[in-house]
Amino acid sequence: MLGEIKGLNEECGIFGVWGHPESAQLTYYGLHALQHRGQEGAGIVTTDGEQLKIAKGHGLINDVFSQNQLEDLQGHASVGHVRYATAGDGGYENIQPLLFRSQTGGLALAHNGNLVNAQALKNQLEGQGSILQTTSDTEVVAHLIKRARHLPLEQAISEAFSMIKGAYAFLVMTEDCMFVANDPRGLRPLSLGHMGDSWMVSSETCAFDVVGATYDREIKPGELLMISDEGVESKRFSAPIQRTLCSMEYVYFSRPDSNLDGKNVHASRKRMGKSLAEEAPVDADVVTGVPDSSISAAIGYAEASGIPYELGLIKNRYVGRTFIQPSQELREQGVKMKLSAVRGIVEGKRVVMVDDSIVRGTTSRRIVKMLKEAGAKEVHVRIASPPIENPCYYGIDTSNSGELIAANRSVEEIEAQIGADSLNFLSVDGLNDSIYQGEESMEHGGCMACFTGNYPTEIYPNTVHPYEKL
Known about the structure:
Largest sheet: 7 strands, antiparallel
Radius of gyration: 22 Å
CATH class of the largest domain: Alpha Beta
Oligomer: single chain
CATH topology of the largest domain: Glutamine Phosphoribosylpyrophosphate, subunit 1, domain 1
Shape: elongated
Strand content: 15-25%
């Protein structure tokens, strides 16, 4: 998987269906469309109005679900989840949706994001007698909901969401109702669609296209939807706060055919490439992008610069993980198995290599070396986002500052470390303008904390990074 090469992963994607006799099958296809958001595990929970059924497992969607399993998941509603495993967080019990059963009924939860006050809440819950079965933040929400059992379920869920902080898009399903929530700043994408009389919810709009559903709108920050056989009801669990959608959704995570905040991802990435060409021009012969998320920006760079775009790098889509890599030489070979330079395109050429981001720098160094070994005369690296200098606490594995190459190095030092003939990043203003096209100011646009260090939420002293969980 190229995600291993690039060093950026996100935790998950969620998909839900209400009011369709083949809800499990639709959720299966919806999760297929979201597979890029999580490739370590997947699960589906269905309801037939009387009981909740679950199937989940490690691996890709095709590996987890058989036809027999999908046929056993009878029900008119379902919630599904794809995920990346986090450090110390890869056990079967952590694969979502999480399903809890009690005397008052079942509860299934699927979550995209990360809670910055999860550890504090876990300490509080355990101090009050709760026994947590997983290391997932999601379980905290289930306990908060159940502890408010004196309230109607809708109020209990609202109260639970009012207590958690950070980034979260949630699907919560009981035997007879589905609840949909987005955090008060809308850090993670979540949309509502329909197919006939059926309702669907997805992390990305591309999944609606895959299953044949119609996109309706995005779930608003702080909004709580209740979907049942009675229809859809919208309420708020939080006062409106200016949305700060994660900018890395545009840069890297979302599929190019998805729309975020009414803006197409592919078009946004092309504008990033065009802005990058204006900010960092160079004399070169060809432009190439690192597959797949950088292709759109590379096309934009080529269009703005007048330098022809070529497929100088090819991704091998049939290579799985290579677990045994005992030497540096074999690790280098593993990269070559997943990504290849096209010698006939780059040999003797001055190449502009466009990538979406640099995290640790190891991948960029290997790709630059690969291009030069294929005969490239020069390799000029252009990054369609600003330097990632700060860790993310909202569900992206940009780890800690010590592992981020841009945290303590200048652009010139990074350039030397990756072996490029030149290196330039898109500016923060350039990224903001490429996404919002002047509609919103930088202070009121997307979350750019990994670039600027300006976090949209409080970061608690005991905040645990999502990829450092014990």
